[in-house]
Automatic annotation (TrEMBL):
InterPro entries reported for this sequence: TPR-like_helical_dom_sf, TPR_rpt, Ycf3/AcsC/BcsC/TPR_MFPF
Organism: Fictibacillus iocasae
PANTHER family: CELLULOSE SYNTHASE OPERON PROTEIN C, TPR REPEAT-CONTAINING PROTEIN MJ0263
Protein keywords: Repeat, TPR repeat
Record protein name field: Tetratricopeptide repeat protein
Length: 221
C-alpha cells in the first residue's frame, strides 16, 4: 500500500498529507495521486478543496470512476445531495456494478426527497452485497416511503435476521406490523428494539400504543 494511504487509514493526517503531496510532486500526471489527496481532504471535512483535486484527476483521466465517486462523497457530506447524485451517476456509468456507489446514489436521492429514483439503486446495492444490512435497511425505508408497506415489512424482517442488533430495523418492522393490525407482533418488535437500545423514543411510543390497542381488544372480548 502507498505510504500516504497507509497513514490516512491510520488517521495520521499530517503524515498522510506530506506523503501524498510528495507523490503529486514526483508524478504530477498521475490521477491516482490527486484522488488520494482528495480523499484525505474529504476525510478532514475540507470538501470544497477535495473537489478541486478530484476535478484535477478527471482532467487527467475523464473516466476515473474513483474521482467521480470521491467528488460525490464530498458533495454528499456537504449536504449537496443533487450534485452528489449526479456525480455518483457519472461514476456508475464507468463502473455500473459497484455496490458502494449504488448505495450512495440511492442515499443522495433519498435525501433529495426522491424515493422513487432512489429505489433501484438501493435495491441493486443490497443485491450485490447480501450481507450489507444497512443497504437492505435503507431499501426497506425507501419501500415504506413509497407506501409499499408489505414489501417493506419483508425487507425489515430480513434485516433483523442478518443483524439481530439493528434496533431501527426492529422498530420499523413494528411500524409495518402495526399498519396491518398485527398488534402482538408489533409489540414484540418494539420491545426488541428497546432491548437493544433502551432510549429508543419512537419504539417506546410504539410499545405504549400497542399495549393500549391490546387492552382495548381484551375489553371488547
Amino acid at each position: 500500500m502507498d505510504k500516504g494511504m497507509d497513514y490516512l487509514n491510520k488517521g495520521k493526517f499530517q503524515e498522510a498529507a506530506r506523503e501524498l503531496e510528495q507523490n503529486i510532486q514526483q508524478e504530477p500526471d498521475n490521477p491516482v495521486h490527486y484522488i488520494n489527496f482528495g480523499n484525505l481532504l474529504s476525510t478532514v471535512h475540507e470538501h470544497d478543496k477535495a473537489i478541486v483535486f478530484f476535478q484535477k484527476a478527471l482532467e487527467l483521466n475523464p473516466d476515473a470512476a474513483a474521482a467521480f465517486y470521491g467528488a460525490g462523497v464530498s458533495c454528499y457530506k456537504a449536504e449537496k445531495y443533487s450534485e452528489a447524485a449526479y456525480l455518483f451517476q457519472q461514476a456508475l456509468s464507468r463502473s455500473p456494478e459497484d455496490a458502494d456507489t449504488l448505495f450512495m446514489a440511492g442515499m443522495s436521492y433519498m435525501h433529495s426527497d426522491n424515493a422513487l429514483r432512489a429505489l433501484p439503486f438501493l435495491l441493486r446495492a443490497s443485491e450485490l452485497n447480501s450481507s450489507d444490512s444497512e443497504a437492505l435497511f435503507q431499501y426497506g425505508l425507501c419501500l415504506a416511503n413509497l407506501q409499499h408497506v408489505g414489501e417493506a415489512e419483508s425487507v425489515f424482517t430480513s434485516v433483523t435476521e442478518i443483524d439481530r442488533n439493528h434496533s431501527d430495523a426492529f422498530y420499523n418492522l413494528g411500524v409495518c406490523q402495526a399498519y396491518f393490525d398485527k398488534h402482538e407482533d408489533a409489540l414484540l418488535s418494539f420491545e426488541q428494539a428497546l432491548s437493544i437500545r433502551p432510549d429508543h423514543y419512537l419504539a417506546g411510543n410504539g410499545k405504549k400504543n400497542m399495549q393500549e390497542k391490546l387492552r382495548q381488544q381484551e375489553g371488547k372480548a
